[in-house]
Amino acid sequence: DLPPVAQQPRLTVIGTGYLGATHAVSMAVLGYEVLGVDVDPAKVDALVAGRVPFHEPGLPEKLAEALASGRLRFSSSMQEAAEFGDVHFVCVGTPQQRGSNAADLTYVDGAFRELASHITRRALVVGKSTVPVGTAARLAALVREVAPAGADVEVAWNPEFLREGYAVQDTLHPDRLVFGVESPWAEAQLRAAFRPVLDEGTPLVVADLPTSELVKVAANSFLATKISFINAMAEICEATGADVSLLASALSHDTRIGGRFLKPGLGFGGGCLPKDIRAFSARADELGVGQAVRFLDEVDAINLRRRQRTVDLVAELVDGDLAGKKVAALGAAFKPNSDDIRDAPALDVARMLRDAGAIVTVYDPEAMANAARVRPELRYAPSLTAAVVDADVVVLLTEWQQFRDADPEDLGALVHTRRIVDGRHALDADRYRAAGWEYRALGRPVAP
Ligand code: NAD
């Protein structure tokens, strides 16, 4: 028989943002006793009150279920976490450093240091944050240094692949689990902490610490490269009159290539892909192997060029002069089903249009409050219809279902001029053109 600890380890989740809140709730739903800890008292208060402090479909219901079960609690005390947990999951942020491409590890270092300094028993501290390769080994040494005498603390890594908008589903039923461990004991603890997920037949890769850190950044690099690949093809299409949406469709039928992440458009953003590929490039430079991932700098550059190209398309529709033109910007979140505006291409384009003199009115179904906080200089409308009233150009920047479902005739009745830039290849060009709209999309010819 395994000792009780390995049967049903008590879990803590340190950092209850997008990743941590989802992880804490999901693990409690799976039957574990979970304590979530965050330094931000507002976040802790919200979660205790049953309120998810961000938009994530399905998570509020699961939070209510988990709180009602009595298995999920939240606190701001690291000491309480250290006393409670057999397995600690560290889910704090690793944003891009100001003025550099490298990851800012202040929060991860701080969380590991503080947690370990309070641990007086046997425990496993598992990093889930996305970090530069080599961080876990450094943190393992740090933990050994700061843990009080008598404590027996080991470090492991368990990279997270959840997608915002599908976070609960991805946590309960992931494509795979990766455990980076330094001992059979750590592997056993992690197996115990994910037993219901593993029992479903979820593939598991057990690896060393650096490999497990690399899996995450390699996966994000691949996805970013796939998006920038098709957007590079869009640039070529623009120079030749070819149509990138037909090209992407034809490529996607090749099962070796596949259609996912091959959608041309405004490109990627958010709190992960951009900063992760930059941090990877910076880390490879530190390791003296920057050459190996130099293409990621180009992936980043291709991605950012799509934003200016979208602004140019809007300008082309108003004869090159954006000054004083009314532009309805549909979307602010970095992708649909999220209110996350970190490095959001949509908000960046709205800002660039305004800088070029346009009068920009933004509407997003969920991200308005977040957008208004970081871009107070933009105008915001309370609805899709309010946003497009009297517009000279409509530009679709985030492919919310609501925008896909909009009727071109109904929208046409509200705007000043029927002109639209489809920054996400999300609309039916034929329907818009049939309704008298001048329709433009990145990488597609002016007329069909
Ligand atoms: P986030 O900013 O939403 O959450 C981080 C949380 O950590 C915040 O609530 C913050 O208050 C808290 N925190 C900071 N320092 C702390 C400390 N010392 N003790 C306790 N709490 C502390 O970030 P996120 O989007 O959840 O991302 C977290 C990590 O997960 C990042 O490394 C990210 O790259 C990675 N990741 C995120 C996603 C995603 O979809 N958001 C997916 C996979 C991996």
TrEMBL record:
Keyword Cell inner membrane in annotation: no
Record EC number: 1.1.1.22
SMART domains documented for this protein: UDPG_MGDP_dh_C (SM00984)
Domain (UDP-glucose/GDP-mannose dehydrogenase C-terminal): residue spans on this chain: 328-429
Catalyzed reactions per annotation: UDP-alpha-D-glucose + 2 NAD(+) + H2O = UDP-alpha-D-glucuronate + 2 NADH + 3 H(+)
Keywords: NAD, Oxidoreductase
A Pfam family of this chain: UDPG_MGDP_dh_C
Record NCBIfam families: NDP-sugDHase
Name of protein: UDP-glucose 6-dehydrogenase
UniProt source species: Curtobacterium citreum
